[in-house]
Amino acid sequence: MQEPSIEEDRSEKETIISTKCRFLLWSCVIIPISIMISIVAVVIFIRYQSSFSSNNILCNPLKFSDYTSYPAGSDPWSINNGYLDGDSFLDIVVANTFDPTISIYYGFGNGTFQSQKLYNTTYHVFYVAVRDMNNDNKSDIILTYSTLNQIAILINMGNQNFNSPITYPVGNFPFWIDVSDFNKNNLLDVIVVNDRAASVTILYDYYNLSFSYSKTYPCGDDVTGVSVADFNNDLYPDFVTTDYSDNTISLYINPKNGIFNHKKKIYTSIGPWGIATADLNNDNFIDIVNTNFVSFTISVFLNDGHGNFNKWDTYYIGGTTMSVTLADLNNDTFIDIIAANFGDDFICIFLNKQNGIFEACQRFITEWNVNSDTTGDFNVSAVTTGDFNGDNKIDIALCTGQSTMNVLLNLC
Ligand SMILES: *[C@@H]1O[C@H](CO)[C@@H](O)[C@H](O)[C@H]1NC(C)=O
Ligand SMILES: *[C@@H]1O[C@H](CO)[C@@H](O)[C@H](O)[C@H]1NC(C)=O
Ligand SMILES: *[C@@H]1O[C@H](CO)[C@@H](O)[C@H](O)[C@H]1NC(C)=O
Ligand SMILES: *[C@@H]1O[C@H](CO)[C@@H](O)[C@H](O)[C@H]1NC(C)=O
Ligand SMILES: *[C@@H]1O[C@H](CO)[C@@H](O)[C@H](O)[C@H]1NC(C)=O
Ligand SMILES: *[C@@H]1O[C@H](CO)[C@@H](O)[C@H](O)[C@H]1NC(C)=O
Ligand SMILES: [Ca+2]
Ligand SMILES: [Ca+2]
Ligand SMILES: [Ca+2]
């Protein structure tokens, strides 16, 4: 009876040992290995999450035609588009900073344009806006006469004719324009940044070719850009500026009478320049994008739902950048970002991941360096968007330091 007992004892011991072994095996080998594998898997997943999710983004990567190039005047600095003659085809207007002209490219509606038609203005026009100022259903042109401390309005007379520019005094070195109706009396108001006066001027109530009064509001140093939008959803237009030397944006909320009194200073990255506003995450609150000339980036501020912009996301461009515009390029109802690279020959497009977070820059070449020098003279100074060939896809037009205006058609 001893033997079996010993046997039993041994087998019990073996059982205990084998249990211990199994315990050791699990605790010292399999569990740690599983944990390590899981960690590696999670890291890989996080690392490539953007590329997994990008599979859901339409037209990713985007496709555009090679650019078509049109001559412009000397150093075009600003571009915009609208319906400038009687047809339903978009036309493009460019401000030639080192010529006393603007160029208008009348569209054929198929993505091609007539060669530039020049209109006399003055030297050093740094911004061009398009808007029907006198409510006759013909789009007019508003310009900054930057070294004359004026803005100018060209009233559309039809048949590709404009009246001679009528000028209005503003502050020191007007640099950027937006148009709105801040006091909601159905007369348009023009807001102008005065770059060398750290202020904006609002010219109120355009009627019968004149404004009825104006007011000036302080901003940061070397204020560069302005964008008007209703940030707190009270149906009154507010505005935001980029303050280049202060690394801030200045936000003014409309106290519902069109007269502004409280500036909110928000820090952004280094050398804020261009600015644009739109609802980027489809929550019905307007968000802000600005380019940062010095840090080669754009900042994206998402509205917290109360008109507050407490943090920003940064996206890298890889060159000095001024102009930015917002449009849905892949028709998924989420607004994408198009930024011009002034220090190089490409534009950056940031596709929206459908939540206000963006993919990395997709580059599109916009101008070969035709003089084959290496000084970067192909600089993309400004960019605008519109459906230029009537296929319901938003196309891109831009102007460059090579004195060209280039069109890229969306092939999404
Ligand atoms: C666009 O339209 C114009 C004027 O009708 C025509 O001359 C030109 O060939 C067209 N171009 C294309 C690419 O269809
Ligand atoms: C534009 O200016 C040029 C040079 O000053 C002049 O020759 C030309 O006649 C002007 N054109 C118009 C339409 O005023
Ligand atoms: C305004 O002009 C456009 C063409 O530019 C035309 O299609 C539209 O019918 C006009 N609207 C009115 C109210 O006249
Ligand atoms: C428009 O302005 C002109 C010139 O300033 C003036 O003579 C005219 O009476 C004004 N018309 C209206 C309707 O205010
Ligand atoms: C192009 O940009 C560089 C800086 O990025 C600047 O030094 C150069 O003057 C610019 N060229 C033109 C033609 O604007
Ligand atoms: C864009 O989307 C809308 C609605 O989802 C659709 O009706 C339209 O055909 C699309 N346009 C293009 C060019 O795909
Ligand atoms: Ca008009
Ligand atoms: Ca007004
Ligand atoms: Ca508001």
TrEMBL record:
<dbReference type="InterPro" id="IPR013517">
    <property type="entry name" value="FG-GAP"/>
</dbReference>
<keyword id="KW-0472">Membrane</keyword>
<protein>
    <recommendedName>
        <fullName>VCBS repeat-containing protein</fullName>
    </recommendedName>
</protein>
<dbReference type="InterPro" id="IPR028994">
    <property type="entry name" value="Integrin_alpha_N"/>
</dbReference>
<keyword id="KW-1133">Transmembrane helix</keyword>
<feature type="transmembrane region" description="Helical">
    <location>
        <begin position="23"/>
        <end position="46"/>
    </location>
</feature>
<dbReference type="Pfam" id="PF13517">
    <property type="entry name" value="FG-GAP_3"/>
</dbReference>
<keyword id="KW-0812">Transmembrane</keyword>
<keyword id="KW-0732">Signal</keyword>
